[in-house]
Amino acid sequence: MEAIISPSLLSANPCNYGEDFKIFNNKDIKSIHIDIMDGHYVPNLSFGIDQVAALRKLTDIEFDVHLMVTEPDKFVEALVEAGANSITIHAEVALHLYKSIHYLKSFGIKAGVAINPATPIGCLEHIYPIANRILIMSVEPGFGGQSFIPFTLEKIKALNEIKKRNNYDFTIQVDGGITLGNIKEVIDCGARDIVIGSSLFKQDLAENIDLFNKVINEIKNIP
Ligand code: DX5
Ligand code: ZN
């Protein structure tokens, strides 16, 4: 699977979503990352369900919802109705993770599980066969614009080894602190869905998408 970039709307200017979505269409962006925070699991607030529904009217691109909330199951049905195509919940708060993954899948959407930098990948061992995506957080969740935590590269690499060895289906996603300086490294380690916030929306969005895609294409073209 080729790597894709998923723009994280957290860093976008809320007055500009319509224009940004046009750029995503022109640049063939496959997935838009939407962070939902409850002020409990993380010390911040962000998008709500009604905003997801309003944004859905502006584009057909996949909505990848990253739920940073303490009770994720509570919001799943409403989010699917609002237009989420993929929902990722945090392993640290899912008391019944196996059940929650099946619950997500019962809506016909992609089911993802995220882990924070200090959470070991081993806690996901029993859900590897059923998860559609595993999100390795490369910053502590809650805010855009933080610096990439280097040891998370080892987690991506180890997870990718497990994926290859067992032929698992899940996609490895990485989120937090991705820049033009480290995107190659995360892809080399095995990440294929690269969430990018502040590095994409600073200055010219279209130009930045081109710059990131250039790096991805260079990796692709290595024999
Ligand atoms: C952080 C969010 C990220 C955030 C990434 O909790 O999950 O999706 O938008 O932003 P950058 O790329 O600026 O670290
Ligand atoms: Zn996120």
TrEMBL record:
The keyword Hydrolase does not apply. Pathway: Carbohydrate degradation. GO terms for molecular function: D-ribulose-phosphate 3-epimerase activity; metal ion binding. Signal peptide: none annotated. Substrate binds at residues 8, 66, 142-145, 175-177, 197-198. Transmembrane segments: none annotated. Keywords: Carbohydrate metabolism, Cobalt, Isomerase, Manganese, Metal-binding, Zinc. Gene3D superfamilies: Aldolase class I. Its cofactor is a divalent metal cation; Co(2+); Fe(2+); Mn(2+). The active site is at residues 35, 175. Catalyzes the reversible epimerization of D-ribulose 5-phosphate to D-xylulose 5-phosphate. This is Ribulose-phosphate 3-epimerase. It comes from Clostridium fungisolvens. The gene is rpe.
